[in-house]
Each structure stands twice: as C-alpha cells, then as structure tokens.
Amino acid sequence: MCTCVAAALVAITALPVSAATAMHEHHVASPSDPSIEIYVRERLPENTTPDTEEGQAVLFVHGATYPGITFDTPLADGESWMTRMAEAGYKTYYMDQRGYGESTRPALMSEPAGDNPPFARADDVMPDMDAVIDFIRERTGDDKIDLVGWSWGTVTTGMYTAKYGDKIDRLVLYAPVYNYENEAWTSKLADSDNPDKLADVGAYRSVDREQADARWADQIDADPVTDWRSDAVFNRWFDAMLAMEPGASAEQVKAPNGVLVDLWEVFNGRAVYDASKITVPTLVIRGDDDPTATDADARGLYDELGAATKRYVVVGDGTHFLCLEKNAPQLFAETQLFLDSE
Questions:
Q1: Any idea which architecture 3-340 has in CATH?
Q2: Which residues contact 84 (CB under 8 A, 6 or more apart)?
Q3: The pLDDT of residue 188
Q4: Residue ranges of the chain whose pLDDT lies below 70
Q5: What are phi and psi of 184, to 5 degrees?
Q6: Dist. CA 40–CA 281, nearest whole Å
Q7: What share of the chain is helix, strand, coil (3-state, %, to 5)?
Q8: In this predicted structure, what is the pLDDT of residue 13?
Q9: Integer Cα distance of 76 and 231 in angstroms
C-alpha cells in the first residue's frame, strides 16, 4: 500500500513540448434527456488517431461556474494544460456539463433566472458523464480512463468514481471541495432572513468580466496581481467563454445553479458523495492560497478516501485558478507524475 502526503512548494520544471497536437469536437447525446447534447473536445498528438495512439485517455471536468475551455486556454507560452498532456502522449478530452460552454443550454436559461429552480446538480449530470466516458472508452479502445476534476468537478468526478470505479484508472481532485464548513461561502449563499437556509438562487447565475476578475484577483497574495496572473491569459480565457454564449454580443457567462445546492451542502459540512467508496489511485492537489478548496477540507477528503494509493500535494503561490497562473506548470507536472506512476 502506498499512501503519502507531499508539499510542492518549490519550482518544478515545466512539461516538455515535444510535438504538435490536433483538436476535434464531438457532441454526445444525454441518455436522460434527448434534447440535451454534451460537448466534448478531444486533443491528440498530431497525426494520430484515438484508437492507435498508445497513451492513456484522460477526461478533464470543469467546476461550478466556468466551462471546460479553462483546460484548453493557452498560457503565456502558448500551451494549454490539454496541449501539454497531448504532447506527452495522452489522449486528452474535456466535457461541458449541460448548461455550460458549448453543451446544450436548456430553454429555461433564456428565461428570467428567478422563474425556475436550480438545475444540474452533481447527481443529475451522472448519466451525461457516463455517456461521455463510454464514448471515450469506445473511441479509444481503453477499458479505463483517467479523470481530472476541478472544484465542483471534484464533486462530480468523485461521485462518478465512487459509483463507477471500474471505468476509472486514476483520479485527480484539483482544488477539491468535499464536506468542510466554510462560513465565507455559506454567508454568501444563505437566505438573508434565515441563515440556515439556502437563498432562492433561481435557475442560473451570470458573471461578467469585472466580477470574474475581482474574484480571482482577491485571492492573489501579490502586488501587482500580474506577478501571478497574466492579464493576457485572463482576457483570452474570458473572451473564449463569452464566444460560447448564445447571442452575438454576450457580455456575461451563464452557469446553472444546481451546483449552488451542492455547495450549500458541502460548505455546511455535509458531503454529497462518499469518498470512502473511491478505491482507485487518487491525487488531491490544491494551491496554498485557495480560500474555496481549503487545506482542512482537502485533508479531510484525503483521509476519507478508500484508495490504497493516494497523494496530497500543495502548490505554493497558487489560488483556486492555479491552472491558469504562473505556477500552473507545477500543477501540470505533479498531475502527469501521478498519472504516469505505476
């Protein structure tokens, strides 16, 4: 049995750039709703096909607000996380959950948010994830794939692996949230008249550029913030998300609010899945300045994992958005080191 806790607080060499990659786009029908199609982006080493490339397949799963393009946004050197993984020989994929990015936006997202209840909780998207994972398994010929979840994506990938671990080889929980009381978040989500109750949040929420910038910048323990985060990367990322929004002149990114119901439970210390049922090798990794995925929550999750092989890594000078920051190469290298290990 291999169980270890590690802290990555020093520089790690960036993953090598070895070859060009090719991007392909797919849509997978939801088995629970024929009107919903789930967007899947595939990135492979150039001049390969998913059934002949020998590398492992890995699926990236986004968090609560921002879609999968986060994993394929180029950093200052022009390389995204997915590009680096594909160059290393991996068959890389990301999916957009229903209501996010380039997946189907239900009609209720065109109506006033308050007219409908929250939708797309973690349990609701399990059939969609299963369909996408089966699509990848069939396309690649891989019996099992690797999963990388970010933020709420650690809830969906954790829940999925707890239920369908026979389809997963290794699991990476990046910036995880699990079951730790987080007053900073519950105070934001609570009903103003009844702090023990989730506010009436409606079906979806909208985030503009200034709000996204402020949330991220507030976590950066540096002055100026550009010591950790490039303005060009931030604008490239946000512009790409706006381009996915319906309407030619969208100025806000919309996201379903089912996740807020999940997070209300999580941040009140009530897990929405059982980590003890995860038995595949698992990496828990976070930035040390992340106020959402706290050290206490990550360590509690780590302790509850049923995996015989597990690792906890902390990357210094990193926020909840570490994958787009100056120390992103440490996150990428630690992830690949774990996925490459025997």
A1: 3-Layer(aba) Sandwich (3.40)
A2: 14, 15, 17, 332, 336
A3: 95
A4: 1-19, 248
A5: -60, -35
A6: 25
A7: 35, 20, 45
A8: 31
A9: 10
Q: Where are the domains of the chain?
A: 3-340
What does the alpha-carbon distance between residue 77 and residue 110 come to, in Å, rounded to a whole number?
37
CB atoms within 10 A of CB 336: 18
Two tokens at 70? 């986060």
Q: How far is CA 103 from CA 7, 35, 37, 45, 106, in A?
A: 36, 11, 6, 25, 9
Tell me the pLDDT tens digit for each residue of 189-228. 999 999 999 999 999 999 999 999 999 999 999 999 999 9
pTM for the whole structure = 0.94
Single out the residue of 91, 171, 170 nearest to residue 138, CA to CA. Answer: 91
Is residue 42 a contact partner of residue 69, using CB atoms and an 8 Å limit?
no
Pairing of strands 168-174, 282-287: parallel
- Predicted pLDDT at 10: 32
Q: Is 237 exposed, middle or buried (0-12, 13-18, 19+ CB in 10 A)?
A: buried
State the Cα torsion 284-289-290-295 to the nearest 10°: 50
